[in-house]
């Protein structure tokens, strides 16, 4: 396939960008568990959160229930010798030299670091624009900013309440962080001023998820334990601009009165019938994907504020109130977008975003592997790699991708 594409590119039939998209999309046809890279197993804790840096494509963060944060350097350079599933002797030194290389760079926990979190880590994120710092939150009520070079704490926001999730604005001119806590208020923190910039009130339950709009640095979405999803514009006096309603499926449709009696005595506009613990915007900023502990995934058209009724089938399992990380494949890497979802049944399920069609169900097959192991979090390694890393409830970090990955470096200078 690659040789034909390169020939078409060489004679000018297709562009470099289109060639790159076709090759990347082909990697999704046969996703599976990868035996490399390998990471240490943290048997006494569950991995709650992981994040792979998008600026250099080398570093992985993970946070666990035992309050520890682990930092790894991961070499994801493609190499045919990496995929050695047909080779039986894994102790062969020649094989070891060709594996994806992983190197532990740091371990921050309350046993070896005075500034480490006291309770389970709920979210870790790299600063979006470089790897000079990263952020972490915990049930101890603190959001910490770390210096990557020294692994020392640069600053700490003390919120005095459990933090369930946070998100960093991806706008380069913004320094804002939205924090979802056990209270019904969303907190907006400003790193430049090291202070709270806004408090967004209006939810009836504790906040479990939050997400900034990728197109508008002042707009965000939040999800609560009462099934609410609210959209906010922090420039406005009345910041809440919309409440998404699961019954609003058409611009002209009337919302039935029965919504007033679902799960609460108050008149609450619900997007899900239970906790909303996952949110993800598409790149256009006008489409939002949400998930809740009602075992549903919903797609919202924000232009019209309607539930699109896209059906993702019966395999969605989501019963835990912890934040659920979903990933929509980048539109710039391929024409067809997929949604990857870590289901509570231990699988990573991949759906086609356009129609909700089930594409594949990924599960690690190993006779020695406990069936109770669940994928709790998910991150994409980016750079057209089609490689994903997941954290599990039994302290493992697993890699997923195309075992026959033969991604080629497509560059205009090559032609």
What does this structure look like?
- The chain is mainly beta.
- It is globular and about 60 Å long.
- Helices cover 6% and strands 37% of the residues.
Question: Main attributes?
Answer:
415 residues; mainly beta; four-stranded antiparallel sheet; 3 helices; 37% strand; globular; disordered C terminus; WD40_repeat_dom_sf; DNA repair; WD40_repeat_CS
Helix and strand arrangement:
Elements: H1 2-10, H2 16-27, E1 31-34, E2 47-52, E3 59-64, E4 69-74, H3 93-97, E5 102-108, E6 121-126, E7 133-138, E8 142-147, E9 152-158, E10 163-168, E11 176-181, E12 186-190, E13 195-200, E14 207-212, E15 219-224, E16 229-233, E17 240-243, E18 276-281, E19 287-292, E20 296-301, E21 306-307, E22 327-328, E23 338-342, E24 348-352, E25 358-362, E26 375-380, E27 388-392, E28 397-402
Protein name: Anaphase-promoting complex subunit 4 WD40 domain-containing protein
InterPro entries: Rad28/ERCC8/Ckn1/ATCSA-1, WD40/YVTN_repeat-like_dom_sf, WD40_PAC1, WD40_repeat_CS, WD40_repeat_dom_sf, WD40_rpt
WD repeats: 114-147, 200-235, 269-303
């Amino acid at each position: 396939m690659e040789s034909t594409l390169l020939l078409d590119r060489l004679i000018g039939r297709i562009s470099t960008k289109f060639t790159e998209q076709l090759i990347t999309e082909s990697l999704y046809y046969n996703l599976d568990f990868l035996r490399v890279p390998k990471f240490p197993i943290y048997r006494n804790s569950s991995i709650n959160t992981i994040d792979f840096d998008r600026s250099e494509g080398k570093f992985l963060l993970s946070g666990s229930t035992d309050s520890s944060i682990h930092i790894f350097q991961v070499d994801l350079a493609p190499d045919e010798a990496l995929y050695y599933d047909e080779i039986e002797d894994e102790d062969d030194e020649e094989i070891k030299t060709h594996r994806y290389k992983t190197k532990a760079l740091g371990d921050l926990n309350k046993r070896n670091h005075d500034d480490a979190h006291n309770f389970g880590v709920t979210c870790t994120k790299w600063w979006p624009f470089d790897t000079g710092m990263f952020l972490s939150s915990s049930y101890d009520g603190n959001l910490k900013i770390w210096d990557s070079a020294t692994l020392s704490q640069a600053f700490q926001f003390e919120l005095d309440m459990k933090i369930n999730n946070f998100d960093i604005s991806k706008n380069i001119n913004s320094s804002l962080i939205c924090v979802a806590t056990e209270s019904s208020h969303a907190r907006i923190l400003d790193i430049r001023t090291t202070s709270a910039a806004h408090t967004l009130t209006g939810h009836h339950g504790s906040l479990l998820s939050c997400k900034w709009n990728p197109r508008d640095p002042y707009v965000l979405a939040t999800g609560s334990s009462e099934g609410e999803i609210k959209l906010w514009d922090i420039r406005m006096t009345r910041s809440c601009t919309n409440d998404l309603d699961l019954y609003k499926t058409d611009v002209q449709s009337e919302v039935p009165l029965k919504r007033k009696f679902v799960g609460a005595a108050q008149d609450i506009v619900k997007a899900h019938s239970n906790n909303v613990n996952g949110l993800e915007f598409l790149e256009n900023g006008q489409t939002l994907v949400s998930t809740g502990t009602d075992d549903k995934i919903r797609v919202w058209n924000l232009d019209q504020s309607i539930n699109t009724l896209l059906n993702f089938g019966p395999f969605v399992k989501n019963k835990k109130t912890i934040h659920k990380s979903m990933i929509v494949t980048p539109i710039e890497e391929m024409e067809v977008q997929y949604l990857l979802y870590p289901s509570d049944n231990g699988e990573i399920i991949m759906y086609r975003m356009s129609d909700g069609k089930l594409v594949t169900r990924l599960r690690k097959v190993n006779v020695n592997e406990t069936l109770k192991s669940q994928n709790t979090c998910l991150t994409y390694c980016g750079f057209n790699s089609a490689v994903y890393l997941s954290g599990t409830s039994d302290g493992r970090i697993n890699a997923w991708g195309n075992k026959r990955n033969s991604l080629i470096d497509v560059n205009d200078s090559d032609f």
